[in-house]
Records
---
Amino acid sequence: MRKKIAIIDDDKKIRDLIKQYLNDQGFECFAGEQGKDLDQIIQKKDIDLIVLDLMLPNESGLDICKRVRVNKVNIPIIMLTAKGDEVDRIIGLEMGADDYLPKPFNPRELLARINSIFRRHEMETNENLINRSANIIKFDDFEFNSQERTLKKGQQSIDLTSGEFSLLKVFIENANQPLSRDQIMQLAKGKELDVFDRSIDVQISRIRKLIEANPNKPKYLKTKWGYGYVFELTPQS
């Protein structure tokens, strides 16, 4: 899909030039001359990036940028500034602009800045997805999030004690691998199992009651007789 760009500049010649050039480069552009125009464009279109002039009538580009960020609008912004406005460029970045470009400029440089921002945001999005995926394991209706320390069944949260969470985390991280009770204790609590310590078995019993349809005939957390336990799991995408 074509990326959508909003162009806000009160100079019609510059505005039309940018719009035509970016349209020719495969973007879908929407132009206006002041902050009210930008508000209408954002309301009607799913904008991917804003090219925003610093000097505008009624409301400056700095004020618009600040207002947009205060309203939690995270669309990338490239600020167009006069060549000598070093202080304004710094303030623009502090207000939440992603980049700035001093006038006069070559449209190819603007294109390079736009593509750079899109590449950066794509990389950040992919990294966030990878990190989120690495922290979440799904099995049937359950979702286990190791980072947020949560277990859900559908939309319902399931309360876990600290010990139950640590134990379930060990099993999920070592899914389909039989673990002895000594290994489980070492991985969950970082200590050797005392011969009289039955806390592992008690917590396993509790976890089974939380995730198994029939705790007496477990589907996931199974006993390996004479050895320990195994958490049988087929992760879902």
---
Amino acid sequence: MICGSGTMGRGIALISILSGHRAILFDNNQEALQQAQLFIEAQLKKTLDKGTIQRVTYEECSTKCSYSNDISEYVSSADIIIEAIIESLEIKEQLFSSIEQSGLRNDAILATNTSSLSVNVLSKNRKYPHHFIGLHFFNPAHLMKLVEIIKTPITNEQVLQTALEYCTSIKKVPVIAKDVPGFIVNRVARNYYNEAMRIATEHASHPKQIDTLMKSLGFKMGPFELMDLIGNDVNLEVTKSVAAQYFNEPRFTPSLMQQDIVNAGRYGKKSGAGFYEYE
């Protein structure tokens, strides 16, 4: 079961059903849930048209994802529940409490897809903390291979093994990371984004030129293209979270350039405009 039907949640659901699992996608927002369903159906059709899957597989996958805005409907039957919602400690806590009150089994795995919050902090108020773990996917989740697995000091060893097996079954490359702010990738990536925006803010270069230079050095995407893909609102919140947890160390300081972009509602591809314009 995946809680949150945004970009990350729908991607996790898609790769799960393509790998033979059944998936339940939950969201309070019915419109977001419908958009997620349209996305998954379109991606399955695209995969069929490209010849990546056979029609029989396409038809099977089309029946393997359920959609619900009633969290109590499927919780008791779920073996793994992955939270993939907004990067807010308070809102995640509310969701976890709802899951636990809706019949969470003591043998089920409750996982968070947080990219910057402490997994230890998220686990301390849990009903079954030994079965709590971090499963951090990367955007787009159905394409990116890496998954960071973050266990707490009391995470059950079998839970860790099951998490590893699940990631392998959906053709991901799992890496066990320590519970430090940003884990591995987001800790490193803050500098990729922040330095690029610092250069642009100082008018030493501009976003398109910086992206072109970085791609010429072997990066698949430039920092501004990547921020637009992830969503500038999401990216900024992660930067703020990491900076706060590192006690405002200067190199993790969020950029006013990105704050201005977010204030203007230019979140990136999902809103039609970010550092670049999109049709």
---
Amino acid sequence: MNLRIVLSPTEARVVGCLIEKQVTTPDQYPLSLNALTNACNQKSNRDPLLALGEPEVQQLVDGLVRKHVVMERSGFGSRVPKYQHCYCNTEFSALKFTPQELAIVCELMLRGPQTPGELRTRAARMAGFADSAEVERILESLAGRAEGAIVQRLPRQPGRRESRYAHLLSGELAPELVSTSTERDAPRLPPTDDSRLARLETDVHALRAEIAELRSAFAAMRTP
């Protein structure tokens, strides 16, 4: 597979979902079209939220199959087609990630630009990290890959202590993401108590949603 295949944002969502489910719910992987559609439209761990129909997801899958990024791999006795990615870490791909790198890249594909602190919290369900500094070191390594950058650090937003990172698997970033005018012209103000509280509430909500998802997956695994 060409290491620099460019994915559209919705193709990246499909591939990110396949990577996520391969790691978090391996007993339910590969995914049927219905399961993949539900994964793309999840209300938790996704940004932006989507409402794709099965025909749309099937069209995306068919395009990814032609790009040799997804393959049909149904198990013995399966009545419906099931799909798995071959985008990275497979014999069909030259693109290799460590478990921690894979977790970070997957989260960026599913949720868009995030800070090292956000990634440490959200990617912990797929790999462990000692602290935000470790996440930042991994991000810088991904940004400096000899064969081509996988992520890019964005200008720090006003009122935020950390810069966000975005993946480059969908090609060049939008100009508004990489513009430095906002950071250069805006005053560097510390975050207010209200903004810190809002971020904490957002993180708590995200963690609750992830716990609910894991409980649901565990209950499904226990069902005969």
